[in-house]
Amino acid sequence: METNSGNIFTGICIDLPCSIGLCAEQSAIAEMVKNNETAIKRIIAVFEDGSILPPCGRCREFIAQIDNQNIETQIVLPEMEEVLLKDLLPERWDGKWN
Hints:
Elements: E1 2-3, H1 24-34, E2 40-43, E3 45-46, E4 52-53, H2 57-66, E5 74-76, E6 82-84, H3 85-88
Parallel strand pairs: 2-5
Antiparallel strand pairs: 1-2, 3-4, 5-6
């Protein structure tokens, strides 16, 4: 992920059979927060085979709640298409940007 200040943070997915794992987006965000940043400019998730994956619903919500500015985060999708996070969360549960 790239922050609004231009820093790059990476994360890893820890996928466990009992469903208590950690997504790569979440571990990258944890690293970013440890460095006193919360605003994300662009994020890309890459599967072990090199394919690009969109963030799961839990990660989309996590990204949005870390910083209100993140509704404008550019999410890289397969085929290198980019969309804004707010377009992947169109019906916000708390009404912050409906």
